[in-house]
Amino acid sequence: MYDKADVDVGDDAEPNITNNQEQTSRGLFSSIHDAVENVVDDAVDAFQEKAEDIGINIDIGGMRRAGSSCHQNALETTELCNETVQKAREMVDFGLEIKATLTNLGGNNNMDVSALATIKDLIGGNQMKAAMSLAGEMDDLALRCVEKSNAMIKSMNDAVVALPDALEEHIEDKVDAAQNKGAREGDPELPDIQPDIEELGRCVTAIEEVNLVTVFDAGVNAFDGLTSKGEICRTMFSTIKDFAVDIVEMTQVLKEFKIHKFVGKVKDLVRDIWRCLRLGDLIKAFALQVGKLVKWIIDLFKICNERLSMIWGALAYAKDVMADVVQYILEAMGLCDTAKEKSDKILETSREISGHMGNMGNFNASTMKSLKDLMDGDEIKSMIDLAMSMDDIVLEAVQKIITMIQKVTEAFGNIPEVITEGISDMSEAGKADEDPDPADATEDVKELDANKSDIEAANPFQIIQASRAGISNVESKVLKTRDMIQQSRGFAESCNGNIDDFMGSWDLQKAMQKLIEMCRLVKLGEMLKQFAEQIRRVVKAVLDMLRALRDKIMNIDLVPDALEDAIQEASKYCGKSCAVL
Fold first, then answer.
1. Which is higher by pLDDT, 13 or 335?
2. What is the value of pTM for the model shown?
3. Can you point out the beta strands (E) in 236-383?
């Protein structure tokens, strides 16, 4: 059972020998060494015989194996804790960074809109994913610490089994007894993490029920909780490491167990075993406790990543869209200005044509020739071209506004319902008391259509009057469209101002107003679109009437063929041309 190699014989005690005496001295030292070894061997043999006679049986190999196993598991536990403490520190640093960012960007509930993208990138970016991964790894490391503690406790149980039976019988219920016999003054108590778990639970609930008013505070509180609980985890893993380091030191003797060192130190050996059992149990308890906390940290990270990143991402996207649609608003404003210029020229030309018609006398051949020349001249062509161009311009403006409405509506639709709760219809939510009634060009179109019908039905004696009425009505209708264009431009200006308000600082206590501003933008766009569509109806009616007027006059046959033949025949007898009409 005993091995003489287990006994130290003082190999490292060789005296310093001069070169001249080396051979003689070495021989002498070897003889002394052999003599000492023989004495020790005899002593070990005598101790073994005596120990066996009185029933003391020590499993030296079992003691060493138990010590080595516990020692190795304790070393691995210290390495696990070093890794976990570093991960916890990184997780805490990330939480502090987000908390500081949220606090700095949104201090006093006054946040610059550019912060939306910054917060989105932090909460939904790679750093957040890395932090979630760290928390997951910490959970795994906590489980591994539990496994190591179980292995250490088993090793110490094996060490107890290796003790003499007389000692082993006195170490019953090893782990339970170790709580007292292995305890030392100053041992840290297992932290009560229930209040911390409850706090994290409240943070999870707050994120699940978040709305636009609470999203900022809920985020700050969540990352404050993640930071503080991450610090608790770091401290608990540091404590586990301290336990493991103590076990490493105490098991050093067990893993190199020698029988001669056991003699007279039985109490120390048993005390160390009790202590290792106690520390192994503490490691297990701390690791299980910190594992519970880490699982709640993981849950909070997940809900933050899912909900907060979605909300801040949607708001950041909305901000980008609002910034993007400015170009469409500005282009629509420019198109309104161009359309107004066209309407002014149409008015100017219509007044010139009205003047020419006013100077025409009663119906006769000369008057009809003048009217034909007027319809075949540059002025009427210019009016038609201007009206066509004006229609194209207004159509382009409508398309710009439609694009703007679509983009803003899409951005609003991406915002989670919990944020937009209560807003089911953007147009309805964007209404204002000062909004004008919808434009209605129905009567104007009817009047122009009536002018067109009168012109088409007019005979040569009626055409001048019908033409004067049609041109006069063009003037009044274009004046009305010009006013509508001005109102449409006003809508565009309001859109631009609305975007400026949205892009300004955010008072998070009044953040719902930002969503209403998006709704207002859509409503303004719809009003602009509706007015522009009515403008186009009038312009189209003007175009139809002008074309009918020109075609009618250019195609009037002042002298029918039969009458012209009769006149030519009569002129043969009269000797001169017969003037008619």
1. 335
2. 0.67
3. none
